[in-house]
Write a structure and sequence with these properties.
It contains 2 helices and 11 strands; from the N terminus they run H-E-E-E-E-E-E-E-E-E-E-E-H. By secondary structure, it is α+β, with helices and mostly antiparallel strands. The protein folds into 2 domains: about 110 residues, Immunoglobulin-like (Sandwich); about 45 residues. The strands form 3 sheets. It has a 6-stranded mixed beta sheet, with no helix packed on it.
Length: about 200
């Protein structure tokens, strides 16, 4: 009886192992399953810059990739395409978007309205989906403000230099005028003294 039980246990382990291997093989052969990686989930950009919304997907079947933009101005569909087939770009983004085989997109000439959340969905033909999100922050170009301040400072410096030169010229003219007046007074005083001496 003990030998029979041991034999049953041994057969049970073998049958269990074989069943597990068959199930694993069946799962690997079954089409379906999609994965998505977002290497840079946060992007900082300045106005008029080009940005790459980078992702990498893999799936066993044919995938459809869709990108959407969500911000305080609302939700906008950017682009949808099927690998190896059609590409449908929204009219708003028609001249600004480039698509890549790995699911990434490039957005050219970004503006303040391009800030927000970018959602990517990879839909595999057998019904499995993968989702990713990238946050984009867009900032005004600071050096333009600094350029304005520098120009204003240069203008004020030039005006100050002109005023200083003008004041120096006025001071010099006044000094020359005073010198001439003093010289004339001295001459007239000398003449008066000479006249008084002659009269005496």
């Amino acid at each position: 009886l003990m030998r029979a039980l041991r034999g049953c246990r041994g057969r049970g382990v073998v049958v269990g192992t074989v069943t597990l291997c068959l199930a694993a093989g069946w799962a690997l052969q079954t089409p379906g399953g999609v994965s998505l990686v977002v290497p840079q989930p946060n992007i900082n950009a300045t106005v008029a810059q080009n940005i790459l919304l980078s992702v990498e997907y893999s799936c066993r079947g044919v995938a459809t990739i869709e990108w959407k933009h969500v911000s305080s101005w609302g939700t906008t569909s950017i682009v949808e395409w099927r690998s190896g087939n059609y590409v449908n770009i929204s009219t708003v983004y028609k001249d600004r978007v480039t698509t890549f085989e790995n699911g990434s997109i490039q957005l050219r000439n970004v503006g303040m309205r391009d800030a927000g959340y970018y959602f990517v969905t990879v839909m595999e033909e057998h019904g499995t989906n993968a989702y990713g999100t990238i946050i984009v922050n867009v900032y005004e170009i600071i050096y333009e403000d600094l350029h304005f301040v520098a120009v204003l400072f240069a203008f004020l410096a030039a005006v100050s230099a002109i005023l200083i030169c003008f004041m120096w010229l006025c001071n010099k003219s006044l000094h020359l005028f005073q010198k001439k007046t003093t010289h004339k007074l001295t001459e007239s005083t000398t003449e008066e003294i000479e006249l008084e001496t002659i009269e005496c």
